[in-house]
């Protein structure tokens, strides 16, 4: 998979390093000469250019990319890169970094963003996830379909503890994608029984989050 990353700062380089280890082809783009540090990510391609300029993106052959990641520290730049990648080059998947949470509402399909990643929101979500049992925590927002990646740790008193996945009447527009049980990561099937302490990851429509939380929490048992 070919991935172009706009922004070769610490965030962009870290993403590039991870993706290279997974066997992907990476192009790093930055307009600042001081950001071009080939020795830090030697296996990546590098391009000294302004990712907000069509001529630069033509040079980067963005139409050949499967994914574009807008990872600069400037939200305006990330929005422009996302919009150009989607509308001018038809990139299938556009991921954008949100630096200021106040701007998060802009990072949607209208601007070409498929997935918006807000570092402050993610950090706060991870703090909540570490201390919350029985409460739904929103980890990531997907622009398409107004869906979110959410997590809930099943409390011991939950009514569904011991219930098979296939026997649960899940809300519409939700999908259980992963069960984290101790050190194991499980792909759920209908025969798996839910256990207290399971970390459950769902992709769910925002309108279904409260319904999902009620289904999995102790409140359902006491209703």
From TrEMBL:
Keywords: Ion transport, NAD, Potassium, Potassium transport, Transport. This is Trk system potassium uptake protein TrkA. Residues 137-218 form the RCK C-terminal domain. InterPro entries: K_uptake_TrkA (IPR006036), NAD(P)-bd_dom_sf (IPR036291), RCK_C (IPR006037), RCK_C_sf (IPR036721), RCK_N (IPR003148), Trk_Ktr_HKT_K-transport (IPR050721). Residues 1-117 form the RCK N-terminal domain. It comes from the Bacteria. Gene3D superfamilies: NAD(P)-binding Rossmann-like Domain (3.40.50.720), Regulator of K+ conductance, C-terminal domain (3.30.70.1450).
């Amino acid at each position: 998979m070919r991935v172009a990353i706009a922004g070769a700062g610490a965030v962009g380089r870290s993403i590039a390093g991870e993706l290279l280890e997974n066997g992907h082809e990476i192009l790093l783009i930055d307009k600042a000469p001081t950001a071009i540090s080939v020795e830090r990510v030697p296996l990546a391609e590098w391009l000294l250019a302004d990712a907000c300029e069509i001529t630069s993106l033509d040079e980067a052959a963005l139409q050949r990319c499967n994914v574009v990641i807008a990872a600069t520290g400037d939200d305006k730049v990330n929005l422009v890169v996302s919009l150009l990648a989607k509308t001018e080059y038809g990139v299938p998947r556009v991921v954008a970094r949100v630096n200021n949470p106040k701007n998060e509402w802009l990072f949607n399909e209208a601007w070409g963003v498929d997935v918006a990643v807000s570092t402050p929101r993610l950090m706060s979500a991870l703090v909540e996830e570490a201390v919350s049992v029985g409460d739904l925590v929103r980890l990531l927002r997907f622009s398409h379909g107004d869906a979110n990646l959410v997590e809930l740790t099943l409390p011991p008193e939950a009514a569904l503890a011991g219930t098979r996945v296939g026997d649960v009447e899940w809300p519409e527009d939700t999908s259980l994608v992963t069960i984290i049980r101790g050190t194991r990561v499980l792909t759920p099937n209908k025969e798996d029984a839910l256990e207290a302490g399971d970390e459950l990851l769902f992709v769910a429509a925002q309108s279904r989050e409260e319904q999902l939380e009620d289904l999995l929490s102790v409140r359902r048992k006491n209703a």
